[in-house]
Write a structure and sequence with these properties.
alpha/beta; 14 helices; 11 strands; seven-stranded mixed β-sheet; two-stranded antiparallel sheet; 420 residues
């Protein structure tokens, strides 16, 4: 029919018109492959151009944000001389929640820490204070259920532990806490700039045992943390990021570094390497406590630091598995405890998810056994020396109650994994 129409049009000296829905006749492809229709090729080209345009817009947007941070640093003379004293305080806490008892417990931890950080005894002065909590919902929980849980908790907070603003963001499996802090920092940017505020960035992975006025003091430095992880000669020396305070200028540098590198992080370990261990973005860095002879997460360092007034207990380091195998001599006991479960070891230690069974067994036998990692369904108990130290503290009972409830929930969770 199409060929006949072409001939008829040719006889009259007219250009043949073919409906858009019909393809013009073509010679059969010699290769035997079907030719992509012209209209489909056009749509593919349009789609490719649209994708490139969107990518270009995103790149321009992030380039503009990087430039904005540089302009702020210049406007406030952050590169020239000593910074002006802070005139306000801002707390930004990041938390990942699951609806239910586990989420309620996380909110208790957030509340406990904010209460201690907000006390005038902790801040040492009457500077204006704003607190922001940034939450993401666990993949097994609906966003609505988490919102309702947080709203109920927030309205029940005592006045001295108030939360001025709450943000809900999608969880980023790579940028994790850093993405939550950044969301709040951009919202608080006008307030931060106008008041020259000192910012406290924290997450929900630890529990404070006392107020920490040292972190609010400008004399602590542009970036101030709890403890150094190594001696000055070690290139990996850094301060852990679960609780740090930053001056206004260092906050701008933190934000600029994030914008410059956000697309280069492959996993959480890569993020930790750049933001925590390599502090190239920071100017003046200091810590409340000097290096304790070993990494702060080690048993020896924990004992030394807490007995000298160290103000925090990490939630993955205050308990031990109640397993007789741990008390046996290394020379006579088996390489692996009879209760060892590769599945539980993998699921409860997210940095080991890439290992197979052999790798998991080797990791535990060489290093994991000395790191207080969860490896079985055996009950977890609070370390005896921590209980003794908590008895000496003013807020020790409140801290102990939360730790006990946290451990009960953790034991129930591990027992559930063992059943499945």
């Amino acid at each position: 029919m199409v060929v006949a129409r072409r001939r008829a049009a040719g006889k009259k000296g007219m250009t043949p018109k073919i409906p858009l829905w019909e393809e013009p006749p073509t010679e059969p492809a010699k290769s035997g492959r079907r030719r992509i229709p012209t209209r489909l090729r056009k749509w593919i080209a349009i789609g490719a151009v649209a994708i490139l345009a969107a990518a270009l817009c995103v790149a321009i947007y992030y380039w503009w944000r990087q430039g904005a941070m540089t302009r702020l640093l210049q406007r406030h003379n952050c590169n020239n001389g000593a910074p002006a004293p802070s005139e306000a305080n801002i707390i930004i806490v990041a938390s990942h929640l699951r609806h239910g008892p586990e989420g309620d417990l996380r909110l208790r931890i957030v509340e406990h820490n904010i209460c201690l950080l907000s006390q005038r005894e902790s801040r040492g002065d009457a500077k204006p204070l704003k607190s922001v909590a940034v939450f993401s919902a666990d993949e097994h929980s609906s966003a609505l259920s988490v919102h309702m849980m947080v709203d109920k908790w927030r309205h029940a907070l005592p006045s001295e532990c108030r939360i001025d603003d709450v943000l809900f963001v999608r969880n980023d499996a790579v940028l994790v806490d850093a993405s939550k802090w950044m969301a709040a920092l951009y919202q608080m940017l006008p307030n931060l700039e106008q008041s020259n505020a000192r910012v406290m960035l924290l997450n929900d992975s630890f529990l404070l045992t006392r107020p920490v006025p040292e972190l609010w003091d400008d004399a602590c430095g542009g970036v101030c943390g709890l403890v150094w992880t190594a001696d000055p000669s070690d290139f990996t020396r850094h301060i852990q990021s679960y609780l740090r305070s930053l001056s206004m200028c260092e906050t701008f540098r933190f934000m600029r570094f994030f914008e410059e590198n956000r697309g280069s992080f492959r996993d959480v370990n890569d993020l930790i390497q750049h933001f925590e261990i390599v502090l190239s973005w920071a100017g003046d860095v200091s810590a409340m406590f000097e290096y304790a002879g070993s990494h702060p997460d080690s048993e020896a360092a924990q004992k030394s630091l807490i007995r000298r007034g160290y103000p925090a207990i990490k939630l993955k380091k205050f308990f031990v598995t109640s397993d007789p195998w741990l008390l046996e001599s290394e020379s006579s006991r088996s390489p692996l405890p009879p209760a060892f479960s590769p599945d539980i070891y993998k699921q409860m230690n997210h940095d080991l998810t890439f290992l197979n069974r052999t790798g998991l067994e080797y990791h535990f036998a060489t290093t994991g056994k000395d790191e207080d990692r969860i490896y079985s369904s055996q009950p977890l108990v609070i370390k005896g020396w921590i209980l003794e130290e908590l008895k000496k503290l003013k807020d020790g009972d409140a801290t102990k109650n939360i730790l006990e409830d946290y451990l009960s929930a953790l034991n129930a969770h591990v027992a559930g994994l063992a059943i499945h």
